[in-house]
Specification:
The protein is α/β, with parallel strands linked by helices and 240 residues long. It is 49% helix and 15% strand. A 7-stranded parallel sheet has the order 3-2-1-4-5-6-7, sandwiched between helices. Helix 4 links the parallel strand 4 and strand 5. Helix 1 packs across helix 9, helix 3 packs parallel to helix 4 and helix 4 runs parallel beside helix 6. The longest helix has 29 residues. The protein is globular. The protein starts with a strand and ends in a 7-residue tail after the last strand.
């Protein structure tokens, strides 16, 4: 294939698995990260996937970072917006920084990356944009007004973008994972984790590979008739 795929937040957790799976499918994968140079170095040493450090919440940093990627690797045809953070608090305790940081990192980042890449995709008449939302953007979650708002916003953003890109060979879709077995979930107390799993009809947590397979499916050249869709990968925990 040889198409260039950019995965934001692509060196850890679900993002790492997405990056590796796309590489195995033959894409030229580039992984973005924002904080840990040592983890990025280990990731590249293990996978051979180049990494680029820039803050997806910062429009100027995204412009510089993607400009460097396209100059060094090639035009980006597949974009996976996976970067995200949580700052959980109930609303009556939430500071404005908790709100803004989550909105900017999880939602404004989609504008920043897509805006930077959309003209090139339109010119080449091809693009695959895959935004990683969450079950909590569909169903809401106690203590996550900021995160739920951002992840729900991604869904509306993607539906509008899908309409704009359709005539130019660009698809835009959402994947909304449920609870997936990552480092973050392992920090949840055992009793709470048991309660979470008991609410999942298939009786287990998701695996990063479950999400990565869906990304590869939507990224494929043959997926051009699928756009504006939200694919829920949550074991039946929430059905919309």
């Amino acid at each position: 294939m040889g198409r260039v795929a950019l995965v934001t937040g692509g060196i850890r957790g679900i993002g790492e698995t997405i990056s590796i799976n796309l590489q195995e499918k033959g894409y030229k994968v580039v992984a973005n990260y924002s904080s840990s140079d040592s983890i990025a170095s280990m990731f590249t040493e293990k996978t051979g996937i180049p990494t680029y450090r820039f803050n997806v919440a910062d429009e100027g940093a995204v412009e510089d970072g993607i400009g460097k990627i396209e100059a060094e690797i090639g035009p980006v045809d597949i974009l996976v917006n996976n970067a995200g953070i949580t700052r959980d608090k109930t609303l009556h305790k939430m500071h404005s920084d908790d709100w803004l940081n989550v909105i900017q990192t999880n939602l404004t980042s989609c504008y920043n990356t897509c805006r930077m890449l959309i003209n090139g995709m339109r010119e080449r008449k091809f693009g695959r944009i895959i935004n990683i939302s969450s079950i909590n953007g569909q169903a809401g979650q106690y203590g996550q007004t900021n995160y739920s708002a951002a992840k729900a916003g991604m869904i509306g953003f993607t539906k509008a973008l899908a309409q704009e890109g359709a005539a130019h060979g660009i698809t835009a879709n959402v994947i909304a994972p449920g609870y997936v077995e990552t480092e973050m979930i392992h920090s949840v107390p055992e009793k709470i984790l048991e309660k979470i799993i008991s609410a999942i009809p298939v009786g287990r947590l998701g695996k990063p590979k479950d999400v990565a397979r869906a990304v590869a499916f939507l990224a494929d050249d043959g997926a051009g008739f699928i756009t504006g869709s939200t694919l829920t990968i949550n074991g039946g925990q929430y059905m919309s």
